Amino acid sequence: MRDRLKLPPDYPYAYETHLHTSEGSKCAANDGREMAYSCKEAGYTGIIVTNHFIGGNTAVDVSLPWRDWVEEFCLGYENAKEEGDRIGLQVFFGWEAGFNGTESLVYGLDKEWLIAHPEIRNCTIAEQYRMVHEGGGMVIHPHPFREEWYIPEIVLYPEYCDGVETVNATHESIRSKAHNNPEFDVRALEYAKKHNMPQTAGSDIHSVNLLYGGMAFGRRLTDIKDYIKAVQGREKCILLTGNESVD
Fold first, then answer.
1. Distance between CA atoms of 132 and 97, rounded to whole angstroms?
2. What is the mean pLDDT of each run of 10 residues along the chain (247 residues)?
3. Cα–Cα distance list, 47 to 14, 149, 178, 192, 202 (Å)
4. Residue 113's domain is classified under what CATH number?
5. Is there a contact between 191 and 199 (Cβ–Cβ < 8 Å)?
6. What radius of gyration do the chain's Cα atoms show?
7. How far apart are the C-alpha atoms of 31 and 35, rounded to whole Å?
């Protein structure tokens, strides 16, 4: 039996905001259906699939024509969504863009937007921010102070993001076996406070060995736009480290 999140009565709706599947992320071990089922078992209300985009560790052949690439890239989300609809788990779409090791979580856009905007493949961080905002989306800077071999330098871009992932369960959870250094999140929190930016939390999970991070809200979100509204409006919530008690 899988451990289940034990959430306070005032914040019973947990969302995993940073999740990878093997269809879209080369470093992920499980597919969308498996990830959705595992998160439902663990007590999550919803998940956001954020696979590695072009410029990151994508699992999709980058030589494909753009429309074909997008179709394959979205399979992880679509498979998770189909399973989520079957078992009663909300599944939203996003992606994790990469710029020479510096990453961005993009929320609020969809497959049709991607197909219509092939220029997103080669944009800068500043251009990405403009395009995402024009489309009604949101950019979050995940794990801004992580130090790893694939990150040549720490690059901060407060003027080109809408918030900071100040809690990454991969850094903090007792279950984590990678990137485990809570100091990375301490620095991220200081950074967010310095620039008065909204804060988010996610696990950055790549397998069904869940880390139990994410964000717990006092209400059920309606869709990805509602998530954006909650973050940008600084709605009260709990940022889950993955070390909270579980049943």
1. 12
2. 91 98 98 98 98 97 98 98 98 97 97 98 97 98 96 96 98 94 98 98 98 98 98 98 85
3. 9, 28, 21, 23, 10
4. 3.20.20.140
5. no
6. 16
7. 6
Check if the beta carbon of residue 107 is closer than 8 Å to that of residue 223.
no
Contact 4, 247 (CB under 8 A): yes
Query: Structural domain tally of the chain?
Result: 1
CA dihedral angle for residue 206, residue 60, residue 51, residue 92, rounded to 10 degrees: -120
Q: Is 61 part of any domain?
A: yes
The continuous run of DSSP H or E covering 99 comes out as strand 90-99
102-107 sheet: strands from edge to edge: 199-202, 163-168, 138-141, 102-107, 90-99, 46-52, 13-19, 213-217, 237-241
In a domain? residue 37: yes
Q: Is residue 157 part of a domain?
A: yes
Distance CA 110, CA 63 (A): 21
Q: Residue 146: exposed, middle, or buried by beta-carbon count in 10 A (0-12, 13-18, 19+)?
A: buried
Looking at residue 16, its amino acid is E
Q: Token pair 């949101």 is at which residue?
A: 138
**Amino acid (one-letter) located at 67:** R
The pTM assigned to this predicted structure is 0.97
